[in-house]
Amino acid sequence: MAWKAIDRVNAPAEESPSLSEPLKEKIRGFFDRYPTKRAVLIPALHMIQDDHGYVGWKAMEEVAELLEITASDVFDTVSFYSHFWTHPKGEKVVMACRSVSCDLLGADRVLDECKKVLGIGDHETTPDGKYSLMTEECLAACDHGPCLMVNEKMHKCVNPADVRKIIKDDANDKLDMPRSSLYDGANRTSA
Amino acid sequence: MSDYETVLLKNVGKPNSQRLATYVEGGGYSGAKRALEHTPDDVIDVVKRANLRGRGGAGFPAGVKWSFLPKDREVTYLCVNADESEPPTFSNRVLMEEDPHQLLEGILIAGYATQATVAYLYMRAEFAEQYHIMQVALDEAYEAGYFGKNILGSGYNLECYIHRGAGAYVCGEETGLIESLEGKRGWPRIKPPFPAIQGAFGKPTVVNNVETLANLPHIVNRGADWFLGIGPEGSSGPKLFCISGAVNKPGCYEGAMDFSVRELIESDRFGGGMRDGLKVKAVMPGGISMGILTADELDMKMDFADPAKYGLLGLGTASAIVVDDQTDIRKVLRNVARFFSHESCGQCTQCREGTSWMYKMSNRVERGLGRMEDIELLGEIPAKMGMMPGLSICGLSDGAAFAIRTIVEKFRSELEGYVRSENDDAVRIALEIAN
Amino acid sequence: MAKIILNNQEVETREGIPVLQAALESGLNVPHYCYHPGLSVVASCRLCLMEMKMPHPKTGELGWAPKLMPSCQTPVRDGMEVRFDSDKVNENQERCMEFFLLNHPLDCPICDQAGECHLQDYSYNFGKSESRMVDQKHVTPKKDIGPKTLLYSDRCVMCSRCVRFCDEVAGTSELCITNRGSRAEIDVFPGKPLDNPMQGNVVDICPVGCLLDKDFLFEQRVWFLKSADSICTGCSTGCSIRIDQNEDHVHRLKPRFNPRVNQWWICDEGRFGFKYIHDKTRLTQLKLRRGESLESLRWESLAETVQYRFENVAKKQTDKKIAVVMSPFMACEEAWLLVKSIREVAPEATLILGPVPTVEQDQRFPAGATNGDTKFIIRKEKCPNRKGIELIIKHFGGNSESFEAFVEQAGKGEFVAAWISGGYPTEWVSKDFAKASGKIPLKVVHDLFPSALTEDATLIAPACSFAERDGSFINATDIVQPFARAIKPPQGCKRDGQFLFELAELEGLFQAANVREMMAAEIKEFENVYVPPQLPEHQH
C-alpha cells in the first residue's frame, strides 16, 4: 500500500547470523593493511558473505562495531555494491553476463534458459536453497560470450542448450587452482 | 601496420607463465632492479620522456600524473586500477591471468618512482580466478623479496595488498575507487583536491591502470626512445586491443597504435574477419563509453587522436565490439542504456535521472513502442550531460552520453524506420497502461 | 575583501567563500539543493552551475570557459568574473528541474512542504511546466525513520543534506544512502532510527517535502502561518527561532540563522518544547484572595493593590523582610520594571533569583565534540535568562539573597511579603519552598500554572509564555538578544511587560525596545542588543 510507511524504527523481526569469533579474528587480521578500520569493510563483507552466504542485519551491526563505524554506514556501503546480498542466497550463485558483447551473442536466451531451468527470476533463490540467479553487467570475458559464472567458476561460450547440463553438473563451481593461504576469498562451496 | 614485436603479451601461452620462475627466466624483474639502482626522479623522468599515456581510458600521461605529488609528502599510496568493468574490455584480465608478475613488477617500479609506502591492487569482484592467480603470484613475489621491507637491498619498502571490489562500474573512476578502498560507497569525489594531493585516506595518491603499469618494466629496461619508436607520435608504445562480437577470432591482441578499426577486424593478426559471412554494421571501438562507428567509418585509427574526428569520446580501452548487420540497433541501444542506468552512482542529477530515463525510452523503443519524440529525446538528453560540459563530477555520464548520442545520431534513420512502422494505437495503449 | 564581476556587475564579497554564497548574498536567486553553508560541499545537485572566465590554455587570453562550473565548489578569488544569466546556465537549470521532477509524485496537494518547497519555487522560476517523460515513474517507499520524522523517498532530490547533517553536525550518522543510481534512497539502519537530540533540523534543511516532521504533519498549510522572531527558552544557549502561528495557535518553531549563537540549527528540546503554552490548565485570571475565597481583580486595580499592600507591610513591619523572586524565564525588561516598582514602595526589598533548572551537563555536537570542534551546545542550564536576572539584581544592588537562603529564611518566618515570578514550563515549586512560602503572609504569585504557591497566594497574576511576550534575554555567552511576541495571550491574561510597566507607573504602552533604551541609560550592557543578520533572501 503506497500510503503505508515502512517501519524502520523497530528492528526487523527476522533472525540473521552473528559473526563467529574466528570470523572476527579473520577480519581483525586485515586491520594492519589499511590506515583506517573502515577500509576493512569491503574485505570484511566478502568474508561475511563467504561464511554466512549473505550479509544479514545482525552481521552488519556487528561488523560496524568491530570497525568502529555506525550500522548505517555499513548498510550504505553494502547496498551500493551489487555483489552483496542482504537476504539469504543459494549455495551457488549463477551470474549471467548481459553486457553488450554477450547480449549480441545471445545472452538473453541464455538468461531465459537459466530462469526456466532454475524456475526463478533475477535475484531470486530456488526453494531448496541451492541456486540463486543474478545478472552481471560485464564479466570481462567478452571474447568468450555468452558467459555464465557459477560462484567462482566461469563458463564460456554458453549456448542456451548447455544451460541445463551446466546446472545439473555438481562440479559446476569447482575451480581447481593454487590458492593463497592469506585470504582465499573462496566461496564456501568451492573451497 | 608495422611489424610488431610482442612485449606485453610475450609470456602468454608459455607453460607456467604465472610462476615467478618462468617470469624471471624471461628477464623478469630486471626492470625493477634497474629502477631501484636509480633515483625515483630518474624513473619518473624516463616515464615522462616516454610519454606513457594512461591505458585506462583517459590517456593522461602517467609520468605527469606522478609529478603532481607534493614534494614534502610523507605517505604516498599507489592504487592499481584493476576494476576493469567497461564492456567489452578484458585486456587487464588477460594481463593478470597470464602474466601476473609483469604487473607486480610494474607496481614495484611505480611504487618506487612515487615513493609509495603501500600499493593497493583494487580488483573487481568478478575476477575470481584472476584474484587467486594474482594473490599466489604476490605471495611468491613477497617470498622472493620483491615486496616488503628493504626490497632487493635498496632500502625501499613497499607493501602490496589486493583489495577486492564488489560490483560497481563507477569504482573504476579513480576517486570512486579511492572511496571504495576506504570502505565507502564508490561515489566519485569532487576535484580539486586531486588524488595526487589528497587521495586515499587523505594522503597523496596515484591511481594507475593495470596495463599502464605493465608497460613500466619494458620502459625502464629499454628506455624512452624505444617506447617512442613504437606507433605514431602521441600514441606511442605497446598497446593491448580487445575485439569481440561477430568476428572469427575474438580476443585480446597487442600492437602499436598504428592501424585502423578495419584492420583490427579484418587482419589475421587480430579479429580475422567477420564470421559466417556477416557484414559490419557498427563498431564501438573503445569500449561502449566512447561511442559508435558506422560501417563507413572503419578507417578510424586506433590511436589517441583519431577517435575525436569521428565524434567519439576517445580511444578509451581500445576494446572493440563489432555489431553485425543482422543485429537490430535497438538492441544495442537498449543494452548500452541499461548499462549506464544500472551503473550510474546516483550522485549527480543529470546522470542519475538522465540515464534511467534514457533506459526507459530505449527499452520501449526496442519493444516496438517507441515514438518519434523518444528518438528526439534520446538525442537531446545525452547532448546535455557529462563532465565535459561540466555537468557532472565524473566521466561516467560522458560515457553514457557519447554511447547513446552517437548511436542515435549515426543510426537515426534506422531507429526512425522502426518507429514509423509501429502501430500507433499499440504505443498509445502501452503508454496509457504505464500511467 | 574581494571584488568579483557577477553577471556583468561588480560585487564586493569575501575572498575564499563559495561563489554561490557570494551570489546569494548579492541578492541573486541561484537555484541550489545540495549546498548548505553549514555543511560540507558535495557539488552533486549540479543546479548552481555557472560560467566562469578563465585564461585560455594556449593563448592565455581571458574568456568564458567552455565548461560550466559548480559555483558552490568554486571559491571567490579577487577579480574573477562569473555569470549566471547566460543561456547555457539557464538551460542547465531548466534541464535539471525537468530531471528532478521526472520521478517526483507531484503530490503537492497533500504535501506539507507545499508553499515553502524549493522544488515548487525552482520549477516555477527555472523549470518547464510539463514533463516530457511518458513512462512509468519510479516509485520509492515512504518510511517511518524515527519517533519524530517520516521520510517520503519519492519526493527526494538526493541532495544528501540530511545525511551530511547527521554526520557532520549531530555527529550521530543515523542516516545513510542506500542503493545507487536512480534507485538511491535515504534510509536508516532498521531498528536504529533517527533519534538524535538535533534531528528536527533535517526537516528544516530538506529543500523538498521528503523529510517530514510528525509533529507538524498535516497540521497547517504553511501559507496560513504568520511568523515572529523569538529566542528559544529551552536552555541558556538562546537560539534564535521563528515562531510560526495561525490564529494565535503556535504550530511549530523553526531555527533562525544566528552566526554567534546557533548558526542554522536548534535542538529538538527547544523545537518541540513549546506545547505547554497551549496547556488548558494555565492560569488565566487575575485573582485576589479575600478571606477564604479568591475573587477576580481587574487589571486596572493591580498596581494600586500591590503598591498599597507592599507599602503597608514595608512601613509597619520593619523587622521583617520583603522578597522579590524573579525566575530566569523573565525578560530583562520585566525584571527591571518589577524591581523598580517594588523598590519604589519597599526600598529594602530583597532581590532573589529564582531556582535555575539545571541538568547534569552540557550536550555538545557533533556528539563527542570537545571545545574546538563544537558546532552546537545544548546547555545544562534549562532557562534562557539567568545572566539577565543576575545583571538586574546586581544593578539595583541593596539586599539580595540566594534562592536557597531565601527559602530557609522564609521557613523561619523572616519574610512578611513576597512577589514571586515563576513562568517555568514545568513544575518548579519544591516541597521545601512550598512549606516555607506558607510562612509568608503577603504573597503575589505571578506564574503560568497553578502550584502549591497559588493555593494560599494573596494575589495570583497569570503570566504569559515566551510566545506571548516581548523582551530580551542574556544568554550563556553574554549576548543580549531581543525576542518578539507571536500570539495573543489567553483570554484574561495581560502581557507581563504591560502590567509591570503599569506597576512601575510608566505612561503609555509597554514597548520592549523603549524600556531597553531606559535601561541602557543605567546599564551599559543594554546599549548593544544583538540582532542576527537576515539570511540572503534566496538562501535556504
Helix percent band of chain A: 25-40%
**How many strand segments of chain C?**
26
Look at the structure and give the CATH class of the domain at 302-527 in chain C: Alpha Beta
Number of strands of chain A: 6
Biggest beta sheet attributes of chain A: 5 strands, mixed
Question: For the record, what CATH class of the largest domain in chain A applies?
Answer: Alpha Beta
Oligomeric form: heterotrimer
Strand content of chain C: 15-25%
Helix amount of chain C:
10-25%
- Beta-strand portion of chain A reads 5-15%
Domain count of chain A: the total is: 2
CATH topology of the domain at 302-527 in chain C: Rossmann fold
Distance between the termini of chain A: 44 Å
Mean pLDDT of chain A: 91
Head-to-tail CA distance between termini of chain C: 24 Å
Rg estimate of chain A, integer Å:
18 Å
Number of helices of chain C: 14
Order of helices and strands of chain A: EHHHHEHHEEEEH
Radius of gyration of chain C: 28 Å
Unreliable stretches of chain A (pLDDT < 50, length at least 5) are 184-191
From the helix content, strand content and strand pairing of chain A, which structural class follows?
alpha+beta
